[in-house]
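Progress note, project year one: complex with pyridoxal-5'-phosphate.
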Amino acid sequence: MSERIYLSPPHMSGEELKRIQQAFADNWVAPAGPNLAAFEAQLCDYVGAQHAVAVSSGTAAIHLALLVTDVQPDDEIFVSTLTFAGSVNPIIYMGAKPVFIDSEPQSWNMDPNLLEDALKARAQSGNLPKAVMPVHLYGQSADMDAIMAVCERYEVMVIEDAAEALGTLYRDRHPGTFGKMSAFSFNGNKIITTSGGGMLISDDRALIEHARKLASQSREPVAHYEHLEIGYNYRMSNILAAIGCGQMTVLEDRVRRKREIYAYYAQRLGDIPGLTFVDEMPYGRHTHWLTVMLVDPAQFGADREQIRLTLEDHNIESRPLWKPMHCQPVFQDYEFIGGNVADSLFDQGLCLPSGTALTDAELDRIISIIQAMR
Ligand SMILES: *Cc1c(COP(=O)(O)O)cnc(C)c1O
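Model obtained:
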């Protein structure tokens, strides 16, 4: 059997190991160390943000954003339904209530019209949410002009889940720089990885400094261990930040290759009846972190699950889209606003192998297996 092809495995440049070796040589294994500040500065520079704190995961970054926003039990947070559970779990950690908003069919991200109707209704009944959390899915930005306009009208804070959107553009701006705060993830299969990690960014220094303190067990700046509030052990290690600094040097290369991979799939499979590929919205740059294909079983003759299993038989990993949060048993008690857009995307969507180290020969192999199924 051929070697396994994974969905989106880590792709190191060589630079990471050099920086890890330097950190070992300097004995900056712990605590903290210079790579942390360097990684934070590089990411700020790249996306155009003022302040950042590197943490242990994207989920931790979202949790910190909610903590420094002083979210109270029973506050509502509006969040995209089509996302990974990492967007929503921190809302539950706070004792707050997620309200799930459906996707719009073009970008698959939070539907600004549904959001507007929902905020209007909430404003009338006097219970606006504490924050709105749009998610930028699979490397495509949500429609931030529309979302920001509505949220500004109702004076509701925006926290962006940009975990899948490093390298993405909305017009000439990076998603993650529109809201009050934003979270990035460097989990193993993201466009760049630190093996595990995340970053919270904001232009508000006080918020990031508060998050930085919370992430280090809320230690007060005195010699003895003094604590005025409950803290978390969420800081990224200097070794992982060294990997992050190395990965930043190849981020634009990774974006280029992800886009090439998408174009390769779309060109060879896009003409087959029943197979469609999500378009890049005219407002931005889609990184195609994952290439996603929609499968109409009536036209193609097989459904996305049959394709997934056939690829699996060939030792190739593919994956359905995120199962919408309002369909998750664990979140079934929370409100959902929308129709069946996210639901039907989930039914039809398949994420294809999109690792930036994939060769054209490997892509050809994947493509010919799918072609042979028609
Ligand atoms: C990966 C991801 C997260 C969580 O990031 P971790 O680093 O895995 O905790 C949150 N939201 C979305 C949309 C993600 O894809």
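The chain has a mean pLDDT of 97.
The chain has two domains: 15-248, 251-371.
No further modelling is planned for this target in the current period.
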